[in-house]
C-alpha cells in the first residue's frame, strides 16, 4: 500500500491492516464490523499520540509485527470506550489535554464538526440538480477525490481540498482564499501535531494506491475527514473478499456495500468532538448485525440507507491489461469515465 506519511492520517489505514488477524470473519457480519471498529479505535488512538509533521514519528515500530501482535490482543468481545494509544519501541505516548477528557454524546453531535467542508452540514433544502447549493444560494463542497489509470498502468490517486473560492473566506485586498487546515493543529505545546512554524497541520487527506508484486493495481479514496481511512479499509477488504466480475475486481459492489464508521476518538475538525463506543451504520445493514453490535456494547446509530462513504476507484490487471472503474452513488454523485 502507498499512503501519505504521518503529516496526514494515511498510516492509519496501514495500521488497521497490520492489526488484522490471519483469518477474517465474513464481510459485513457482526464479528467483521466489531473487529474493524475496534482495530480502528487502536489505530486512531496512535494517530492522536504519534502523528505529525515531525522527523521522529516511530512508523517502523507502529507498523511492526511485534507491536501489532500485542495491540491485537487488546480487542475483546465487548466494545471499548477508552482511547488507548500504544507505546511503540517502549516510548511513552502523550495525548493532548482535550483528548484526555472522556467524550460524551452531545445533542446534535456531528463527527465532522463544523469545519469539515464537504460531508458535514449537507444542505437541508437543496436546489434540484445542484445538491451542494442551498435554496438561499449558499454553496458548500470542498474536498473531492480523483483516481486515474491509463493503458500503461500509470496511476494517480488524489484528494485535493481546502483554499477554494466556493468554500473559504477570501482576503479582499489579495484575492485568494484562506485555507482551513490549521484547525487541525493543537495550540498545546509539545505534541506531534502542535502548531509550530514550518510544520504542516496533520491533515485527514489520505488517497491510496495498492500494489501487487510492486505493480500498481488499484487506486482509491474518498472525501470525509476522519472517516476517510475507515471507509477505505472497508472498501479494500470488500474488494478482496468479493468475487470478480467481467474479468476484474467488483469495485462497484465494494463501494455499494453497506458501510459504517465510528467516532471514538477526537475529531480533526472544530470543535473536535468524540463519542466513545459509537458506531454509525447505514439502514441497509442487516438488523441482526445491528442488534449483535448493541449486545456487545456498541452505541449504534442507524443512518440513512446511502449515507456512509464517498468512494471512487480504478483498477488495472497487469496480466490482462483490463481496466476497471467505479464511482460513489451516495451524496454528491461520482462518475466512472473511460475513453
Give a structural overview.
With 339 residues, the protein is of the alpha+beta class. It has one domain: Gamma-glutamyltranspeptidase, small (S) subunit (Glutamine Phosphoribosylpyrophosphate, subunit 1, domain 1), CATH 3.60.20.40. Helices cover 22% and strands 15% of the residues. The strands form five sheets. Strands 5-6-12-13 form a four-stranded antiparallel sheet. Strand 1 and strand 2 form a beta hairpin. The two termini are 27 Å apart.
Structure keywords:
single chain, 339 residues, alpha+beta, Glutamine Phosphoribosylpyrophosphate, subunit 1, domain 1, four-stranded antiparallel sheet, three-stranded mixed sheet
Q: What's the SSE blueprint?
A:
Layout: H1 11-19, H2 30-50, H3 59-62, H4 65-72, H5 97-100, E1 126-127, E2 130-134, E3 146-149, E4 155-158, E5 208-212, E6 215-221, H6 228-241, E7 244-245, E8 248-249, H7 251-256, E9 260-261, E10 278-282, H8 287-295, E11 299-303, E12 312-316, E13 323-326
Parallel strand pairs: 10-11
Antiparallel strand pairs: 1-2, 3-4, 5-6, 6-12, 7-8, 9-10, 12-13
Helix pairs in contact: 1-2, 1-6
State the CATH architecture: 4-Layer Sandwich
CATH homologous superfamily classification: Gamma-glutamyltranspeptidase, small (S) subunit
What is the share of helical residues?
10-25%
What's the mean pLDDT score?
89
Distance between the termini: 27 Å
Parts with pLDDT < 50 across at least 5 consecutive residues: 123-137
Kindly identify the CATH topology: Glutamine Phosphoribosylpyrophosphate, subunit 1, domain 1
Order of helices and strands: HHHHHEEEEEEHEEHEEHEEE
Query: What's the number of extended β-strand segments?
Result: 13
Kindly give the count of domains.
1
Number of helices: 8
- What proportion of the residues form beta strands (DSSP E)? 15-25%
- Describe the sheet with the most strands: 4 strands, antiparallel
